[in-house]
């Protein structure tokens, strides 16, 4: 089977380490530059609140996507990832459908069950029930997007001829990618989603997990070829590997945590000269990654330029799972 053409996106700085605060003007300019450079997608992070002694100021993800929708014209716009249990699913279905209209059909919905206990406590959502709530909320969103009217009752939500219009521009609905690392998540992808969105995985870890997801899809009667994937990877392009390695590790240390129960690791970072970065990315593509979302060091526009002009051209001719 022929491989798929690889797509490239960028993450946006809608959160920062305190005391800095995210700049909506900076985000808009960055996304506009990414679009002009030919990137396929732009992604926002999602938390309602995060951190105590080390707080992270956040611009809310869906509001930011709405602004991006009217500032850009071609970029696909994604959530990487929306913490689904924290949101009222009926309101969420309406907001996301509106974002899909504002963007003329460019929304990609990445969702996950969440991990930050204090955030759930502050929002009044039982943390230990987040898996069950995730599945319920996802089902409600999908029903409002695809059914002429919604009937029934579940967990205090009563639907009596509930009609939500307009539906999303994309039919039957926007694509839904699930984030997570364990078999429980992979089984939810098989039953409820269109694919997997992962974070800071090495090529070997990605290959094993993607094969596992395909195995579970076959077990569940789902054609694995239907599934898509997106991999978020930090990157620093520099004059030497050592310079890039120092820069990207310092950036990751200030901005990100990696889940100890997953195979996410700072060692997944793409770093070095353009040739070295291209060689590292080629291994991800050969492992099966279809859509790479770059998290450029310090969100510098100069990094966007280097990635688009010096790194991606070196990968021209590659398709997923196939060597150039």
Automatic annotation (TrEMBL):
Residue span(s) of domain Luciferase-like: 17-290
Question: By its UniProt entry, which InterPro entries does this protein fall under?
Answer: Lucif-like_OxRdtase_Rv2161c, Luciferase-like_dom, Luciferase-like_sf, SsuD_RutA_monooxygenase
EC number from the UniProt entry: 1.-.-.-
Enumerate the Gene Ontology biological process terms. alkanesulfonate catabolic process
Query: Which terms in the Gene Ontology molecular function aspect does this entry carry?
Result: alkanesulfonate monooxygenase activity
UniProt superkingdom = Bacteria
Q: Which UniProt keywords apply?
A: Flavoprotein, FMN, Monooxygenase, Oxidoreductase
Q: What residue stretch is flagged as signal peptide?
A: none
> Sorted alphabetically, which NCBIfam families does this protein's record hold?
F420_Rv2161c
From the Swiss-Prot or TrEMBL record, give the protein name.
Answer: TIGR03619 family F420-dependent LLM class oxidoreductase
* UniProt organism field: Candidatus Segetimicrobium genomatis
């Amino acid at each position: 089977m022929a491989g798929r053409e690889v797509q490239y996106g960028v993450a946006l700085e809608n959160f920062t380490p305190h005391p800095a605060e995210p700049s909506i003007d900076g985000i808009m300019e960055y996304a506009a530059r990414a679009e002009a450079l030919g990137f396929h997608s732009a992604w926002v992070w999602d938390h309602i609140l995060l951190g105590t002694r080390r707080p992270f100021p956040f611009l809310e993800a869906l509001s930011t996507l709405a602004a991006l929708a009217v500032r850009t014209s071609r970029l696909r716009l994604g959530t990487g990832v929306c913490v689904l249990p924290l949101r009222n699913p009926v309101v969420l279905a309406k907001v996301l459908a509106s974002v899909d209209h504002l963007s003329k059909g460019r929304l990609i919905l990445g969702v996950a069950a969440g991990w930050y206990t204090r955030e759930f406590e502050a929002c009044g959502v039982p943390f230990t029930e987040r898996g069950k709530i995730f599945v319920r909320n996802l089902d409600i969103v999908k029903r409002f997007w695809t059914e002429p009217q919604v009937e029934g009752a579940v967990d205090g939500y009563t639907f009596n001829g509930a009609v939500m219009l307009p539906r999303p521009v994309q039919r039957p609905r926007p694509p839904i990618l699930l984030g997570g690392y364990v078999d429980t998540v992979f089984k939810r992808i098989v039953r409820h989603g269109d694919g997997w969105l992962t974070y800071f995985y090495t090529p070997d870890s990605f290959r094993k997990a993607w094969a596992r997801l395909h195995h579970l899809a076959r077990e569940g009667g789902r054609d694995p070829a239907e599934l898509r994937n997106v991999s978020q990877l930090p990157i620093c392009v520099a004059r030497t590997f050592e310079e890039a390695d120092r820069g990207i590790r310092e950036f990751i240390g200030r901005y990100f945590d990696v889940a100890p129960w997953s195979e996410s690791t700072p060692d997944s970072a793409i770093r070095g000269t353009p040739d070295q970065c291209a060689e590292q990315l080629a291994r991800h593509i050969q492992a099966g990654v279809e859509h790479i979302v770059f998290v450029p060091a310090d969100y510098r526009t100069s990094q966007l330029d280097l990635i688009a002009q010096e790194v991606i051209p070196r990968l021209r001719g590659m398709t997923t799972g196939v060597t150039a």
